[in-house]
Amino acid sequence: MSSVVAKRYAKAMFEVALEKNLLDQVEEELTLIVETFSSLPTLREWLSHPLTEADKKKELFSSVFSHLSEITQNFLFLLTDRQREGYLEEILKEYKRLSDEAKGVAEAIVTSAFPLSDEDQKELVQTFQKLIGKTIQIKNVVDSDILGGVIVQIGDRLYDGSLRTKLRRFQERLKQSQVG
After folding, report:
1. What is the annotated localization of this protein (predicted)?
2. Residue 178 has what pLDDT?
């Protein structure tokens, strides 16, 4: 249920930002809001408390986030009126996804046994940009369990070049050849 709500609000905000040519600015502002909320647990508690009035929240937002664009501030007020501030993190994720898609950018989550060097990242970007036809942004996740190689996930596509998977496939082929 919550992801449906977040998607609906993110899509609405995305469409307004796209129309006003403010995609990047709105993303930065939403990121700032989410980071502010997550870095201040007492603020989150106060915001989620049922007795905290919407007007008090808006008053606080007006002073803390006075530098926000009008559309982002109005969006924050709308979420406050509808008691949806708790969805901001999910809304931001979905907004980023929509924004990246509109700009032809894809995030590649690259799992490797060791941190990737700048050279490795450049090579992966070049390879996968040609493969999927989009600009790639790499997020490197280190997992020593894969032993070596890389696993690349772009959207719902998975490219598994890990040593662990290659060894498992090799082991399966050995078993099959012994059976026959």
Report:
1. Cell membrane; Membrane
2. 76
- Tens-digit pLDDT profile for residues 10-64: 999 999 999 999 999 999 999 999 999 999 999 889 988 889 999 999 999 999 9
The phi, psi pair for 104, rounded to 5°, reads 70, 35
The pTM of this model reads 0.74
CA dihedral 119, 121, 125, 131 (to 10 degrees): 100
| Helices (runs of H) and strands (runs of E) counted in the chain | 8, 4
Q: Which two tokens stand for residue 147?
A: 């032993």
Residue type present at position 77:
F
Closest CA to 134 of 165, 103, 166, 158: 103
Domains for the chain: give ranges and CATH numbers. 2-101 (1.10.520.20), 104-179 (no CATH)
Sheet holding 105-112, edge to edge: 135-142, 105-112, 149-154, 157-162
The residues near 107 (Cβ < 8 Å, ≥ 6 apart) are 100, 136, 137, 138, 139, 154
Note the Cα 69 to chain centre separation in Å.
22
d(CA 128, CA 106): 10
Looking at this protein, which amino acid is placed at residue 45? E
